[in-house]
Design brief:
This protein has a single domain, classed as TIM Barrel (Alpha-Beta Barrel), CATH 3.20.20.70. The chain is built from eleven helices and eight strands. The chain has helices at 18-31, 49-56, 82-87, 98-103, 108-120, 133-137, 141-156, 182-197, 201-206, 220-224, 241-248; strands at residues 7-11, 39-43, 62-65, 92-95, 124-129, 165-168, 208-212, 231-234. Strands 1-2-3-4-5-6-7-8 form an eight-stranded parallel barrel, surrounded by five helices. β3 (62-65), α3 (82-87) and β4 (92-95) form a beta-alpha-beta unit. It is globular. The termini are close together. The relative contact order is 0.15. The protein binds phosphoenolpyruvate (PEP). Phosphoenolpyruvate binds next to β8. Phosphoenolpyruvate binds at residues 11, 13, 169, 174-175, 212-215, 233-237.
């Protein structure tokens, strides 16, 4: 049995209103109990971070962000610096989500720079990696995962993974309702851990690797019981309190 504590992270993406987030956070925090073994994290849109910091203050739920600038400050219109997130109580920051890589052209190198900037501000990066459908179909999944992972190992160093989380998110499973089978997910999670172990066995054993991609209340348990899956990054289902709580309570 591994000693890694599970993490279930909500990625609200660009959803919510002041009214809806109050309801959602209220229901999620009320539904947490001694049954909640995993660490629970919410990553709201930037503008709701101060409100969430206030709402979560008396709960065990952690606060994170969905993105961040790789730079510290300056004339970068529309960007948010890591220190600003830290100032408002963020402990985690998602970097390299496939929507950022694809829709905003974030390169492997830029993702690595963001990973480093998050850690430089004593927060924990959640590094997202995952293959496209055509990459899986052409048997290139491992090559893509290795490339995305190595870009960060090369720039940040393996020791940096002592203070990081990885999320394996097959792009074809995000928001599509198509979940990877438990076997497909476990296979890639194991590959990621072995890739890290080539550099440092201890770091590879200790790091939490989350699965993301259409995790729902009715499929979370079979994914979370696998040896190398340490929780989930949850999009759509994190917007419905009951579903999100069921997912949080599905960890081993
Ligand atoms: C995500 O956005 O990281 C995600 C996994 O989304 P969904 O759960 O909706 O597929």
């Amino acid at each position: 049995m591994s000693e890694r504590r599970s993490l279930v992270a909500a990625n609200w993406k660009m959803n919510g209103s002041l009214e809806s987030i109050h309801q959602l956070v209220g229901a999620v925090s009320q539904g947490m109990s001694e049954k909640t073994k995993s660490e629970v994290l919410i990553c709201p849109p930037f503008v709701y971070i101060p409100e969430l910091a206030r709402l979560l203050a008396k709960t065990d739920i952690r606060l994170g962000a969905q993105n961040v600038s790789h730079l510290e400050s300056g004339a970068y219109t529309g960007e948010v610096a890591p220190a600003m997130l830290k100032e408002f109580g963020c402990e985690y920051v998602i970097v390299g989500h496939s929507e950022r890589r694809m829709l905003y052209s974030e390169s492997d190198v830029r993702v690595a720079e963001k990973f480093i900037a998050v850690q430089a501000n004593t927060m924990i990066p959640i590094l997202c990696i995952g293959e496209l459908l055509e990459e899986r179909e052409s048997n290139n999944t491992e090559e893509v995962i290795a490339r995305q992972l190595d870009a960060v190992i090369d720039k940040a160093g393996i020791q940096a993974f002592k203070h990081a989380v990885i999320a394996y998110e097959p792009v074809w499973a995000i928001g599509t309702g198509k979940t990877a089978t438990p076997e497909q997910a476990q296979e890639v999670h194991e590959f990621i851990r072995l890739r890290l172990a080539r550099h440092d066995h201890e770091t590879a054993e200790a790091i939490r690797i989350l699965y993301g991609g259409s995790v729902k209340a009715d499929n979370a348990k079979q994914l979370f019981e696998l040896a190398d899956i340490d929780g989930g990054l949850i999009g759509g289902a994190s917007l419905v309190a009951e579903d999100f709580l069921t997912i949080c309570h599905s960890v081993r």
